[in-house]
Design goal:
With 134 residues, this protein is mostly beta strands. Helix content is 4%, strand content 44%. The protein has one helix and eleven strands, in the order βββββββββαββ. It starts with a strand and ends with a strand.
């Protein structure tokens, strides 16, 4: 059974940093693209970042480019999201998701989130809260 568990969320001041982790089990991470999404109250779930199965291709939402970095360690079955220079508008519940694709993250920033959200083969974690506030 595919499982994804997010951790690392919390309360941080504007300008601060957090490192989110997505621990996976029940499947071979090598064959899956992993995406990070977030959802703020009253808003739709949006794609934040994506990394393909090999880790060679990454994608970021314009709003986080230059501040967030996604990385994966297939040997440890984890995918991390390093978030720097956090802003209040980054406040949301953050989710990681997996889809059985080697190319999902090579699509445009508008397309790859839809591939995850519309996938019948996708798996999602329960989310971790990130709050950026002074």
């Amino acid at each position: 059974q595919l499982q994804l568990v997010e951790s690392g969320g919390g309360l941080v001041q504007p300008g601060g940093s957090l490192r989110l982790s997505c621990a996976t089990s029940g499947f071979t991470l090598d064959y899956f693209a992993i995406g990070w999404f977030r959802q703020a109250p009253g808003k739709e779930r949006e794609g934040v970042s994506c990394v393909d199965s090999s880790g060679g291709s990454t994608n970021y939402a314009d709003s986080v480019k230059g501040r967030f970095t996604i990385s994966r360690d297939n040997a440890k079955n984890t995918v991390n999201l390093q978030m720097n220079s956090l802003k209040p508008e980054d406040t949301a519940v953050y989710y990681c998701a997996a889809v059985p694709s080697s190319i999902a993250c090579t699509y445009s920033s508008d397309t790859w989130p839809r591939l995850f959200l519309g996938s019948d083969s996708g798996s999602w974690g329960q989310g971790t809260q990130v709050t950026v506030s002074s």
